[in-house]
């Protein structure tokens, strides 16, 4: 074993208690070890810093208590070897507190010899050097970043002389470190920026301590490049001293690529014209300008007529040349500030600003397209269709204005081509409202918001109940009960016409079955729209549904076809109605006399009943013309051997007059208002009881004459 080094004994004049006080108050961590290296005593600073009390560590080896996952095993091995050899130990090592927090210490440990009149062992002083270690690590990291950064870094003094640069600086600028030390960074200046630019930059640094921006500089070989530069002012502990740290990266390639991307994103490759994206951006700016200046602007959509034939006949190269030539001509025909863009294929859009009368411009555009275009050794002549919308009359956004001009262009084509047509915002508003209403009605159909009301129809002569007409109602979640006049015109001739009609058929027949099971065989009249009637699946659907209800008598179902509905193919309509009658159903011609084809329908359609429109019946007692119309319809029906049902019988006088004119059946508020399905059975039984109790000998049944049924 190596000889232990001797230690100087305490001076005999010094009080040992005072020495013990030093050990207790020193911020250093003191540890006394026995001859085997086990802990005998620790001072309060050790307990406070590590979190271990003396009684927790006494008799244990320091490494078993203080070492952790980050402790260097080689350093621990060296310490243990020197302990065994009783040598002085000086070592930096990572220790851990009781809670697992790491901290660095510098250990100075000396052995206690036998001739010092104290027990042999070791005295270890632990100095916490965590801050120094962290600083060293930060410096190493900073140095590594400085050397390996892809960004150029240069440091200048207070006089803006270069103190240091990193390798990236040399790689970007071409200047070596030795070439620039002590020089001003102005050696990199490209000359593109004015003195005011640099003055503004330095004012920002003086005021805020930093500046960031893009700047053009020049490499050693004279090549210009653009860099993204950040400059910060750094103050150290020296009074009134500061330094500048500048970091920059060469973004020339990025900028070039960005310009290429911008061009690709905003311009058409073939013609070099702005594309739709750039047009929309310019249009948004033009709208804002027009709003501020209270001016207007036009958006035009131009489509070449028959351009495909050029590609087919002369080839794509000829077609491309034609498009380039027309693009140049259209551009020359516009004023400064206007824009022509290629949307795609043979379609162009134009933005015309100002309040001038543009009719001459529109004509000039069409004439420009119409000029012969030389293609090789021949020429081609084209025409165009032009759609136009005006802002702010059309208040749509940029995308909407282009779309509206496109819609107007198709209208121009329908007018015969080589024409221009203006978009009608009012008509478009109507279409949007109808589209929204159809969407709402579609949701209502899915959510089962519709129901059928039923209005009775009776025979005039004896007041016998003929049946009920099914009338649709909409239980709107916000508006409440909505009558058909508010939504059926929207549905008419739309995609919802057949499905809504099928729902009415299905629901009406379901109600008939419910009433039949309750002991009442009540007939039902169901309104059928022209679109539903002419739908190819109409009869098949109806036949299938009737077959699924074999106990139902088809003769109790009357299909009411509106006479005011335009049945474009009367022959086909006649065939459909004939098939329906073969199924056993009856057919009524509704609202007879209100359309323009009354006599034609009466002659060609297979009908069983004629219904007189209520608008004539309600006013016939006061209006001689309406009275004459009702009388004429009844006469015509009698000549064609068709029974007549009059709607709008509101009073006894209406019923009496209709009976006198030969009308067979009546329907109206005078009998009853339309009622929910749940009230039908009760009303029908009450009516039938009153009819049975009446006197049937008179010309007009007393049930009506008394007014009790009205």
Describe this structure in words.
The protein is an alpha+beta fold. Helices cover 43% and strands 24% of the residues. The strands form five sheets. Strands 18-19-21-22-23-24-25-26 form an eight-stranded mixed β-barrel, surrounded by six helices. A five-stranded antiparallel sheet has the order 2-1-5-4-3. A hairpin with a 4-residue loop joins strand 1 and strand 2. The radius of gyration is 50 Å and the shape is elongated. Residues 695-710 have low confidence and may be disordered.
Brief account:
This protein is α+β, with helices and mostly antiparallel strands.
Keyphrases for this structure?
27 strands, 710 residues, disordered C terminus, elongated
Record the SSE blueprint.
Blueprint: H1 16-25, E1 29-34, E2 39-42, H2 44-50, H3 54-57, H4 62-66, H5 73-84, E3 89-96, E4 102-112, E5 121-128, H6 130-148, E6 152-156, E7 162-165, H7 167-173, H8 177-180, H9 195-208, E8 210-218, E9 224-235, E10 242-250, H10 252-266, H11 276-293, E11 297-305, H12 307-314, H13 316-333, E12 339-344, E13 347-353, H14 359-370, E14 373-375, E15 378-380, E16 383-391, H15 398-414, E17 420-422, H16 425-446, E18 450-459, E19 465-476, E20 480-482, H17 488-491, H18 497-517, E21 524-528, H19 530-534, H20 538-547, E22 557-562, H21 570-582, E23 586-592, H22 598-604, E24 609-612, H23 614-619, H24 624-639, E25 644-647, H25 652-660, E26 665-667, E27 675-676, H26 677-692, H27 702-705
Parallel strand pairs: 16-17, 19-21, 21-22, 22-23, 23-24, 24-25, 25-26
Antiparallel strand pairs: 1-2, 1-5, 3-4, 4-5, 6-7, 6-10, 8-9, 9-10, 11-13, 11-16, 12-13, 14-15, 18-19, 18-26, 18-27, 19-20
């Amino acid at each position: 074993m190596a000889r232990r080094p001797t230690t100087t004994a305490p001076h005999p004049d010094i009080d040992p208690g005072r020495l013990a006080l030093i050990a207790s108050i020193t911020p250093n961590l003191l540890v006394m070890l026995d001859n085997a290296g086990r802990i005998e005593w620790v001072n309060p600073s050790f307990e406070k810093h590590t979190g271990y009390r003396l009684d927790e560590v006494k008799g244990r080896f320091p490494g078993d208590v203080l070492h952790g996952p980050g402790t260097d095993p080689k350093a621990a091995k060296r310490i243990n070897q020197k302990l065994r050899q009783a040598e002085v130990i000086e070592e930096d090592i990572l220790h851990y507190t009781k809670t697992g927090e790491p901290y660095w210490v510098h250990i100075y440990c000396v052995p206690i010899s036998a001739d010092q009149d104290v027990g042999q062992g070791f005295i270890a002083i632990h100095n916490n050097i965590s801050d120094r270690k962290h600083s060293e690590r930060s410096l190493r990291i900073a140095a590594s970043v400085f050397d390996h950064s892809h960004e150029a870094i240069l440091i200048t003094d207070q006089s803006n002389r270069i103190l240091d640069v990193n390798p990236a600086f040399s790689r970007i600028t071409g200047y070596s470190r030795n070439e620039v030390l002590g020089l001003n960074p102005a050696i990199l200046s490209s000359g593109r920026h004015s003195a005011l630019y640099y003055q503004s930059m330095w004012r920002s640094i003086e005021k805020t301590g930093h500046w960031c921006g893009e700047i053009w500089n020049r490499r050693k070989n004279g090549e210009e490049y653009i860099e993204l530069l950040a400059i910060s002012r750094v103050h150290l502990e020296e009074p009134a001293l500061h330094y500048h740290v500048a970091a920059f990266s060469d973004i020339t390639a990025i900028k070039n690529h960005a310009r290429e991307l911008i061009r690709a994103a905003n311009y058409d490759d073939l013609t070099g014209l702005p594309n739709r994206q750039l047009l929309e951006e310019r249009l948004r700016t033009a709208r804002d300008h027009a709003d501020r200046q209270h001016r207007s602007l036009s958006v035009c959509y131009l489509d070449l007529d028959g351009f495909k034939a050029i590609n087919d006949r002369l080839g794509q190269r000829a077609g491309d040349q034609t498009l380039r030539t027309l693009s140049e001509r259209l551009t020359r025909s516009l004023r400064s500030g206007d824009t022509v863009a290629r949307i795609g294929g043979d379609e162009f859009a134009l933005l015309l600003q100002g309040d001038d009368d543009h009719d001459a411009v529109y004509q000039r555009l069409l004439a420009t397209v119409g000029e012969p275009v030389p293609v090789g050794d021949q020429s081609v002549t084209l025409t165009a269709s032009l759609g136009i919308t005006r802002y702010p009359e059309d208040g749509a956004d940029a995308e909407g204005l282009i779309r509206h001009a496109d819609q107007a262009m198709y209208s121009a084509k329908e007018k015969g081509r080589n024409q221009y047509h203006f978009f009608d915002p009012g008509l478009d508003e109507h279409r949007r409202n109808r589209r929204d209403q159809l969407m709402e009605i579609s949701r209502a159909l899915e959510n089962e918001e519709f129901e059928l009301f039923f209005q009775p129809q009776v025979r005039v002569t004896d007041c016998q109940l003929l049946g009920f007409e099914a009338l649709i109602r909409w239980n709107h979640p916000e508006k409440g009960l909505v009558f058909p006049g508010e939504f059926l015109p929207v549905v008419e001739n739309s995609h919802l016409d057949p499905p809504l009609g099928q729902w009415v058929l299905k629901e009406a027949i379901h109600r008939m079955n419910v009433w039949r099971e309750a002991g009442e065989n009540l007939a039902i009249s169901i309104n059928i729209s022209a679109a539903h009637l002419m739908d190819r699946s109409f009869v098949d659907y109806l036949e299938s549904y009737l077959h699924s209800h074999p106990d139902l008598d088809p003769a109790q179902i009357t299909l009411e076809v509106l006479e005011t509905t335009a049945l474009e193919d009367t022959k086909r309509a006649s065939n459909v109605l004939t098939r329906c009658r073969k199924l056993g159903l009856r057919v009524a011609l509704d609202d007879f006399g209100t359309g323009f084809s009354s006599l034609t329908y009466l002659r060609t359609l297979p009908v069983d009943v004629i219904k007189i429109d209520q608008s004539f019946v309600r006013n016939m007692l006061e209006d001689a013309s309406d009275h004459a119309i009702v009388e004429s319809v009844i006469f015509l029906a009698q000549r064609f051997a068709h029974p007549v049902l009059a709607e709008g019988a509101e009073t006894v006088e209406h019923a009496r007059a209709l009976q006198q004119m030969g009308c067979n059946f009546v329907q109206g508020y005078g009998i009853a208002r339309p009622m929910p399905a749940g009230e039908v059975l009760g009303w029908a039984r009450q009516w039938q009881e009153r009819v049975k109790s009446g006197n049937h000998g008179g010309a007009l049944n007393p049930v009506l004459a008394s007014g009790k049924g009205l």
